[in-house]
Design brief:
Largest interface: A-B, 57 and 53 residues
CATH architecture of the largest domain in chain A: 3-Layer(aba) Sandwich
Order of helices and strands of chain B: HEHEHEHHEHEHEHHEEH
CATH class of the largest domain in chain A: Alpha Beta
Number of strands of chain B: 8
Radius of gyration of chain A: 21 Å
Radius of gyration of chain B: 19 Å
CATH class of chain B: Alpha Beta
Number of domains of chain B: 1
Number of domains of chain A: 2
Number of helices of chain B: 10
Distance between the termini of chain A: 51 Å
CATH superfamily of chain B: Thiamin diphosphate (ThDP)-binding fold, Pyr/PP domains
Oligomer: heterodimer
Low-confidence stretches of chain B: none
Shape of chain B: globular
Mean pLDDT of chain B: 95
Largest sheet of chain A: 8 strands, mixed
Largest sheet of chain B: 8 strands, mixed
CATH topology of chain B: Rossmann fold
Distance between the termini of chain B: 19 Å
Shape of chain A: globular
Chain lengths: 385, 298
């Protein structure tokens, strides 16, 4: 369906990535946001706090990130599209209730504008070191979807996609921004509402008598009933059967975990999204995401001038990881070069998928700034040897 | 959606609260002579007496023995993470303001791990009914010390007796801004039911503490006899003092338990304040959250 015009600020704007992300959320139909202030993400909720009262939305500044994430899960069960926004330290606190959202299969969006870590790290400076935490940060086995924008325009576009994916798969979707993209100001074009496709919360049309909260066929996503419509359903963070009732058994645990993971795993090819350029006949492929993908551009151009055949694969959806494509490329290329603002995270995933067919070379920047493109170029040139 | 105002018809063969309970989940997990079942019975009785539309009631629990309530009521029931029942409930209430949102959880959950959320929800006068079952101990995890354990009482992590000063919960709630504050023991059936009914009919952050025996751990570790003995002793130690200054409500080990209704006032809730403020500052440009929830159908 089309977006609610009330939330769409149609026009050509000069916005930073944080504001663009907030506009994307409102355009996607988000009407509940709970958050706790943290640099460098706060501008997202500041934008929303200013605009929400005019479109029937509620922003509440909670007492901490634990509460923010819990409130988002609660609000989502009313059918209201819900989001929270944070950075590394807050992301750590949110992990508890991100796990709850995954377990209860609650659609919601969590924005992490990444800064340098660990701990308090570099509050105002860039990092990309929460990528593995995004995938594995809450305890137990579950699956999520994570996106990584590389510009304010993409921060707007991908936030809409994040909401749509969270509705389609009933999972928390993590918007893995970074401080550079969050604070970078560029042109952002917001289309008219009737040109923005949004996935509404699909409410079950079964009667309360026939409705079973977690009944599904194969890897499908169960139908959703919201609080207050007479379905009188139960949902829990405990291992549960299709009625949503806790069952403490190996058998139920097996089914429960498989459902949570397989609904994403079995659709991984459909969800995966990346830009590819120059990979045909390439000796080296640079796998990159977020702000680093723009810095890598210059490194790639420099390497090409030196005669190296280098392609680039820019991840837009980071989780689920585009395993299949990396495996295919690994058959053909000598090496992957993976520049990241961390000490090597996504490079491990590339290495796993390449399975020894091609090398995976990390180009690490520990955070606080972006790569020197000549270092990426040097890694590409050496990888091609 | 049809409105369902109870009185539900009760089969003569059935338990009187069967229409409110997921009977297919019985027997419950609570120990014999645990007080939680009684509190639950009084709560659903009060829902019936207050003639609430049961389609619009949500119950949120955290983790622990009392945390299981959300799974036994035949209502929209949410079993959230440990300590986070109140913020989860806050999301439900703000996402769909027409709901009657009740938080039903234990002392460890609501004022141990969840204490920060408790004080802030009270400060905001969030429109929640909070029922706290206080058994002075962590029951489900095996009798560990709680933020409510009376001085000198033995727990598995204070084997020589507790030396930490416990919370005075009605005072905590009142000082943070709760609009309705009451305390009863789980044998005060009629008075507890009346408190629930009143609290259901009020607005704002409403707090009812029920002192409840933990037969398996608190009674055993402190050699206080059976759960029934404890149930009786709490009741016998109760002193009813309506309207008393909440500073006088500390509970000592096997000492008097001051019960009653301490606070019952009307103050604008979080949502009242929000609506009034935005109407004043934004005028016609303000569009409140619809009672039935945020934009989902376009």
């Amino acid at each position: 369906m089309k977006a609610d015009p009330a939330g769409v600020l149609t026009g050509t704007h000069y916005l930073d990535g944080d504001f663009a992300c907030g506009e994307g959320a409102m355009a996607a139909g988000c009407r509940f946001v709970a958050g706790y202030p943290i640099t460098p993400s706060t501008e997202v909720v500041e934008r929303i706090a200013r605009r929400f009262p005019r479109m029937g939305g509620i922003f509440i500044q909670m007492e901490d990130e634990l509460a923010s994430m819990a409130a988002v899960v609660g609000a989502s069960w009313t059918g209201t599209k819900s989001m929270t926004v944070t950075s590394g330290p807050g992301f750590s606190l949110m992990m508890e209730n991100i796990g709850l959202a995954a377990m209860m299969e609650t659609p919601c969006v969590v924005v992490n504008v990444q800064r340098g870590g660990p701990s308090t790290g570099l509050p105002t400076m860039v990092g990309q070191a929460d990528m593995m935490q995004a995938r594995w940060g809450s305890h137990g086995d579950y699956a999520i979807i994570a996106l990584s924008p590389c510009s304010p325009q993409e921060a707007f576009d991908l936030t809409i996609d994040a909401f749509n994916l969270s509705e389609l798969y009933r999972v928390p979707v993590l918007m893995m921004m970074d401080e550079c993209v969050g604070h970078m100001t560029e042109k952002v074009v917001i289309p008219p509402a009737d040109r923005i496709e949004v996935v509404p919360r699909k409410l079950t049309d079964q009667s309360p008598e026939e409705f079973v909260p977690y009944k599904r066929n194969g890897n499908s996503v169960p139908e959703f009933a919201r609080a207050g419509d007479g379905y009188k359903f139960h949902t829990t963070g405990l291992t549960h059967d299709e009625r949503g009732y806790p069952i403490m058994s190996e058998d139920c645990q097996d089914k429960c975990v498989r459902c949570l993971v397989d609904k994403i795993r079995s659709n991984a090819d459909k969800i995966a999204r990346f830009d590819e350029e120059g990979t045909d006949g390439a000796e080296v492929v640079v796998v990159t995401y977020g702000i680093t993908s723009r810095v890598a551009r210059m490194g790639i151009d420099l390497a090409r001038k030196k005669g190296v055949k280098v392609g680039v694969m820019r991840l837009i959806v980071v989780w689920p990881f585009p395993e299949k494509r990396i495996r295919q490329l690994a058959q053909k290329v000598k090496a992957f070069v993976v520049p990241e603002i961390n000490y090597g995270q996504i490079v491990l995933e590339v290495e796993r998928c390449a399975a020894g067919k091609a090398r995976a070379i990390a180009v690490s920047h520990m955070g606080g700034g972006v790569h020197d493109p000549s270092k990426i170029c040097k890694a590409i040139v050496e990888a091609a040897k | 959606m049809s409105t369902e105002v109870i009185e539900l018809e009760v089969d003569a063969e059935e338990h009187p609260i069967a229409p409110y309970i997921r009977m297919e989940r019985m027997p419950h997990i609570w120990c014999p002579t645990c007080g939680i079942g009684t509190v639950l019975k009084c709560f659903v009785t009060a829902l019936g007496q207050a003639k609430v539309d049961l389609n619009k009631v949500a119950v949120v629990s955290g983790i622990g023995c009392t945390g299981r309530v959300a799974g036994y009521v035949k209502l929209d029931g949410f079993h959230a993470t440990h300590g986070r029942a109140i913020p989860f409930a806050t999301g439900l209430k703000l996402g769909r303001p027409e709901l009657l949102v009740t938080v039903f959880s234990g002392d460890g959950d609501l004022v141990g791990i969840g204490g920060n959320h408790f004080i802030h929800a009270a400060r905001r006068n969030m429109d929640l009914l909070v029922i706290l079952v206080n058994n002075f101990i962590y029951g489900m995890t095996g009798g560990q010390n709680a933020a409510t354990t009376p001085l000198t009482a033995k727990t598995s992590t204070m084997p020589f007796g507790n030396f930490e000063r416990p919370f005075n919960l009605p005072h905590l709630a009142a000082s943070c801004g709760a609009t309705y504050v009451a305390r009863w023991t789980s044998l005060h059936i009629r008075r507890m039911t009346k408190a629930f009914k009143e609290a259901i009919q009020r607005k704002g952050f409403r707090f009812v503490e029920i002192i409840t025996p933990c037969s398996t751990l608190y009674a055993r570790l402190n050699k206080l006899g059976t759960g029934l003995d404890l149930l009786r002793s709490y009741h016998d130690n109760a002193e009813i003092r309506h309207g008393i200054d909440t500073r006088n409500l500390d509970i000592g080990f096997q000492d008097r338990i001051v019960c009653g209704k301490f606070i019952d006032e009307e103050r604008p809730t979080y949502l009242d304040m929000m609506r009034e403020h935005y109407t004043k500052t934004l005028g016609d440009k303000y569009l409140p959250m619809p009672p039935e929830g945020g934009w989902i159908h376009g």
